[in-house]
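Batch manifest line 432
LIGAND: uridine-5'-diphosphate-xylopyranose
JOB: complex structure
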Amino acid sequence: MKLCMIGTGYVGLVSGVCFADLGNDVICVDKDINKINNLKKSIIPIYEPGLDELVNKNYKAGRLKFSTNLSQAIEKSSIIFICVGTPTKKNKYEADLSQVYSVANQISKNIKSFKIIINKSTVPVTTGDKVEKIISSKVKKNLFSVVSNPEFLREGEAIRDFIYPDRVIIGTSNKKSNKILKNLYLPLISKGAKYINTSRRGAELIKYASNAFLATKITFINELANLCEKLDINIEDVSIGIGTDKRIGGRFLRAGPAYGGSCFPKDTRALVDTANKSKTFLSLVNSVIDSNNKRTEILLKRIKSILKNKIKNRKITFLGVTFKANTDDMRESSSLKMIPYLSKKGAKILYYDPTGQKDEFNKFKNVKFKNNIKDACEKSDLIVIHTEWNEFKLIDLKKIVKNKNFIVYDMRNIYSPEKMKKQNIKYFGIGR
Ligand code: UDX
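JOB STATUS: finished
ARTIFACT:
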């Protein structure tokens, strides 16, 4: 099939490449000419394991094209995916849909034959209705159909998540579109993905409800971890103990720092905003947002107590600063609050991240990037395991840290407390 992805961010690029790999002809369009020129030279704008190989392979095979020419891409494609960003508006909970509507306007000027227009961007309920209205102001209704097809990719696992999704959600009441899209996703359905056809608004809400539910699970276990710390219980036992109940499920029950990333914080806020506009108060989701916002303060308080309130001039190492492993994404990472706070209190911070130096910390004089674990840890008083990268899991800390009295604060519980004790390392984890 002939597809066009508008927006080559996370969702657009990964889905476009994966659709090409399934044998479709895909044009990835972006208004950012540098991004498109780089992609043509196989320079990938994001860190995502396996993505560069897949881009190369499909670009060379001619199934994948990159372009800035939107009207041409629309003309050549029968299915058009809108994959632009929907960030939170400044100082509000509301999602900023200006990019979605601007794309809808451009699409409306370029439809000459039947097109399926798919909202893959995460958009509040009724956005599909509004996109349809924009396009129908210029195009006859029988020439297009607007469908919601939310994406559930996780950063760092995006390709795997695309190829083996639990489900494909198609929000449309248009039979023709439903049939075409079922065919598009057939290779994934035949490998076990469930195909679920709902109303368009239903599909839009499913995306927000999924992210809000997962954020709730994490927040629930994080709050229980606080309790475990008071009662000398290991949160890992609790996660396993409740997670083995199939009604609860064991995933997304790892206690840690505040959840971050490009989706959970933004989408929980947008869901609350949608509900407020419909005069419905989502007390649970509101509490999750509040609890997650307060989580960083709780962890910072713990750092202060670990260091006996002496922060000034202490050497603190952060291993990993991104919001999770296998991504270079800093969006809403808890390190963005922790590091500036500790820096203001006079700590000397060194950090190492496998994805390199982060511009966000350049303005702090006493925050420095080291390009290897050893240099970052050598003279440290406190080593904070902030992100769960594999390369941190088997470090011989005794060997690399010269300071005899160093302390480890393992915010991802990657080390065994027993092993740390045996090595005489002062160790703190989360909820244990
Ligand atoms: C998420 C959703 O999982 C995905 O379906 C959606 O399309 C986009 O948002 P992503 O943000 O890439 O994906 O990462 P995810 O693995 O879900 O983690 C989000 C945050 O939750 C991270 O900060 C992570 O560290 C945290 N998390 C996750 C936990 O603290 N504990 C867990 O058990 C799982």
